[in-house]
Design a protein that fits this description.
With about 130 residues, the chain is mostly helical. About 80% of the residues lie in helices and about 0% in strands. It comes from Niveibacterium microcysteis.
């Protein structure tokens, strides 16, 4: 497994722990206002990051370029900001809406970058382009 893939999987595990802890906390307190955060942390954190690590394992050429590095930093800087902004919004701070909007667009941009990068570098390492 490449270093790039390992970083994604390790962060996925962190998001998994945080998402489950949030779920346990909500259940214990019977306060489910942050349910969307729990869902987003599971899907955009745990599942998406784990799958990204797997995809980069299958496409090592896509993992070994500047686009992959940009994807990593853009996604992993924007996602926590998006989650914090969404939490603030859900807890009654309407001023957080622009934070959610901008960070959501950055997460989306990083996903598009990922897709384009994998498509452009989909051949296995060492394979000749047809």
């Amino acid at each position: 497994m490449t270093r790039q893939a390992q970083r994604w999987v390790l962060l996925a595990l962190l998001y998994f722990v945080v998402a489950v802890a949030l779920g346990v906390g909500m259940a214990a307190s019977h306060d489910f206002r942050l349910r969307p955060i729990h869902v987003h942390l599971n899907l955009l954190g745990w599942v998406s990051l784990a799958l990204t690590g797997w995809v980069y394992t299958q496409f090592p050429r896509a993992a070994a370029n500047r686009a992959a590095t940009l994807h990593f930093w853009l996604y992993n800087l924007a996602l926590p900001v998006m989650m914090a902004g969404l939490a603030a919004l859900l807890l009654g701070t309407p001023a957080a809406e622009p934070v959610v909007a901008v960070s959501s667009v950055l997460v989306f941009a990083s996903v598009v970058l990922f897709a384009v990068n994998v498509i452009r570098h989909r051949l296995p390492a060492g394979a000749a382009a047809a």
